[in-house]
Amino acid sequence: MTTSHVVVIGGGIAGLAAARLIARGGARVTVLEGSARIGGKLHVSEVAGLPVDEGAESMLARRPEGLDLVRDLGRAGDLVNPGTTSSAILSHGALRRIPSGQVMGVPSDLRALASSQVLSPAGLARVPLDLVLPETPHGADVSVADFVGARLGREVVDRLVEPLLGGVYAGRAELLSFESTLPAVAAAARTHRSLISAVQGIRAAAPQDPGPVFASFRGGLGVLPGLVAGDVEAAGGTVRTGAMVRELRRTPDGWRLTVGSARDPEAVDADAVVVAVPAAPAARLLDAEAPAAARELARIEYASMAIVTLAYPATAFRRLPRGSGYLVPAVEGRGVKAVTFSSVKWPHLRDRDPGLVAVRCSIGRFGDEQALQRSDDELVAAAMHELALTCGVDELPAETRVSRWGGGLPQYNVGHADRVARIRAAVAAQPGLAVAGAAYEGLGVPACIATARAAAGRVLEHLERVKSRGGTAHGSDGEDGQAEGPRPEPGDPVHDVVGLPREEPR
Hints:
Helices cover 35% and strands 20% of the residues. It is α/β, with parallel strands linked by helices. It folds into three domains: 5-40 and 221-300 and 413-469, FAD/NAD(P)-binding domain, CATH 3.50.50.60; 97-205, protoporphyrinogen ix oxidase, domain 3; 302-410, Polyamine Oxidase, Chain A, domain 2 (Alpha-Beta Complex), CATH 3.90.660.20. The strands form five sheets. Strands 8-7-16-17-18-15-19 form a seven-stranded mixed beta sheet, with helices on both faces. Strands 10-2-1-14-20 form a five-stranded parallel beta sheet. Strands 5-9-6 form a three-stranded antiparallel beta sheet, covered by helices on one side. The longest helix has 25 residues, at 445-469. 55% of the residues are buried.
């Protein structure tokens, strides 16, 4: 298998993680990244001398894949955990602590919900009806708004669930899949008449001391892609940037990729291919050889967002923030949907320069692209206005940065799990082909790595099967109709795009 050649299309964390496993499995691997840098949405740069992530700033520490990768790289000692994950929701014009006992905004403790004052008196009075309402039928997938709203009332959706999901998907509760975005809640709801009781069951079954929620690096999570790429190259692989793949076609012996411009195309041959790019480019690449998968991929929509990072003198705050940040429900009508006090959340940033407070403001929701058509200066002004209004910030920032992520977040809308199953079935019918990335079973770093593991396993099994037959790469290895290994749990319970809040461990 040492002469087998595998090409991974896409140099984000999923593609790099897949390439690393394939290289370690004995194949020659080439990563082709179309942009000028690797890492996708994992990227870090300095603002006023502080290394602050431009995209995802942390990964879930309660899901193993990310930490396992870091340990395998020999860099576990470089990991850091947040100093606090205590945060708030801006509701009815004021910052209010997220009620304890909730799971992605779905409450289990009515007293804590009442004391938080997140809901209006009418909204709060509606919630306990869940305990006496007849069981909601479980049939085809429905939206988060439909299921949670029917059980607990629309205000729980608007002021608790949607803000938390907004940090993950920047999506709309009327469109997002209940099964795919709240998988643990959806599973528990199948065995409980009451949604409150279902969440109480989830909470009761949770470990008493689960450990830190998030992890990152002192230099920012954006250092991870470089570490993985270095390991790929150490194992004999190649990582290329500025190598846009325009076409993917089968050949009698494997696959041929057309790379580069139409004027100066380059042909790259491979025994197997992993497609680890977002849904739209994946659809274009698979259209000729896996049209059924391409059609389904083309139906996955994406939300755009921008992260405005501001470095303020500590004196700009009348009182230094104590929590990690806050979320802003869409119904509040504010331009910013989330704020993270990075220098509070990550003590290493505060220690690096105690005189600065780094803040990240997230702007942009699905269907509201107009909000992102403003100039960088206008987005910075919107972030400054939010901080002045809510936190009383009365000085100018020392430095700012605007990071735009056009089409950055896949939307797990109603029917997503079935759509992914159809994609995987169509891909499984093509020998030597696999897919990976955030479009399938979770947006967080660990979930992406899980898809990379499955893709790498499928490719290595294919190459081993070909080697044992002594035949070409296009013997039929799709005859069992199986997709790429076990499916990870759909959807992360929390995610790290803006640093979602979590109640402090008790």
